[in-house]
Amino acid sequence: MAKLSLFERRRQRVRSKLRAQVAGRPRLSVHRTGRHIYAQIIDDAQGRTLASASSNDKGVKLGADSKAAADVGKRVAEAAKKAGVTSVVFDRGGFLFHGRVKALADAAREGGLEF
Question: What is the pLDDT of residue 1?
Answer without folding.
Answer: 65
